[in-house]
Amino acid sequence: MREPPADGPGARVEITAVMPAFNCRAFLERSLPPLLEMRRRGDVQEVLVVDDGSTDGTAAAAAAMGARVIASGGHRRGPGAARNEAARVALGDVLWFVDSDVVAAPGGPRQIRCALAEPGVVAVFGSYDDRPPAPNLLSQYKNLVHHHQHQVGRREASTFWAGCGAVRRDAFLAVGGFDVARFPKPSIEDIELGYRLRAAGGRILLWPGLQGTHLKVWRLRNLVETEVFQRALPWSRLLLAGEGPGGDLNVGVAEQVRALIACGLVAALGAAVVGLASWWLPAALAAVAFAANLALFALLARRGGMGLGLFGILFHQLYYLYSTAAYAWCWAEARLLRRRPAAPRLGAAGP
After folding, report:
1. 154 three-state secondary structure
2. pLDDT band at 243; cut points 50, 70, 90
3. What span, in angstroms and rounded, lies between the C-alpha atoms of 18 and 221?
4. pLDDT for the residue 260
5. pTM: predicted TM-score of the whole model, two decimal places
6. Distance between CA atoms of 1 and 127, rounded to whole angstroms?
7. CA–CA separation, 154 and 252 (whole Å)
8. What is d(CA 157, CA 195) in angstroms, rounded to the nearest whole number?
């Protein structure tokens, strides 16, 4: 990625940094000061925190630190609704969404302006950096996988990511913002927004230089709950409904091939255990799986040693299994719904 110019066609856009916030007072001590420093330097026009019904003093803490604070409606409505509320009152031409558990890198506004200077670009998103602070294996694995996928993904994207992503305010409002009726809780509201932005004719860029440090601590329960119920299932339903092209990041062709390898590996292991196949078959497929994920292994091992590398590759095969299972479930669900006869309309004549 080339270094952004100090100025250029997109240098004059004004940026509003938008942080949806729910009971995140502890995170604000790290995530809010960098944005406020950007405002002090003139890199962003304002820092807008949308309190989504917090009960831990989040709003008061953000206001005391110097952010502009508004309420999303007096009760928790979800991050999509909070971001929509910010879009209505923001002063900037560009909405830069930064999650409350993300510490944005200082050069973020410059990266955004550089990306938006390209013709037809209405949105840009980046990635987590490769230095997640939580020391446990799952947090290291999850955040580094995200970093890897967003660093090697296609530059021309069809989706959007609101953890650290920016969108032109007029384009955002023109497509109706986040679909909060469909996604009242944290889910794939940003992915679905990206599909609509692209359908409206805008370009979305994946910009690896736009990064932030993710402060979240992942545990097995919240990781599986997030990835299966908040991501894999709704995203699968979206793709099966034909609402998105499905060629980016986690659902790209290369990822689909890796998922098939993981499923084949498990099937071969099962066959070997019951004596239906020789043990050389799962051994060969394990080698193929390792080779297919070699770049990810190299990143994990470089950042956390051989232990993290091996753990990450093994857990990643489990990730492919439950992601594939989620897609298969949604496929079967869609087939069943198509076969089910429609309920008669009220007032329709009987047989």
Report:
1. coil
2. confident
3. 29
4. 96
5. 0.91
6. 14
7. 9
8. 9
In sequence order, which ranges of the chain are alpha helices (DSSP H)?
Answer: 25-41, 58-65, 79-89, 108-116, 137-152, 169-174, 189-199, 220-224, 233-240, 253-273, 280-292, 294-339
Task: Please state which of the ranges 66-75, 201-210, 240-249 shows the lowest mean pLDDT.
Answer: 240-249
What residue type is assigned to position 128 of the chain?
Y
Same domain, 169 and 254: no
| Domain stops at, among 157, 192, 217 | 217
Task: Answer for the pair 20, 100: CB distance below 8 angstroms, yes or no.
Answer: yes
- In tens, the pLDDT along 70-86 reads 998 878 899 999 999 99
Task: Report CA-CA distances (Å) from 120 to 88, 92, 161, 173, 197.
Answer: 23, 19, 18, 16, 11
**Which residues on adjacent β-strands are paired with residue 94?**
15, 168
Structure tokens at 237: 């339903």
Q: What is the Cα–Cα distance from 210 to 157, expressed in whole angstroms?
A: 15
**Which residue type, as a one-letter code, is found at position 226?**
T
Question: Is 4 within a domain?
Answer: no
Residues 195 and 261 in one domain: no
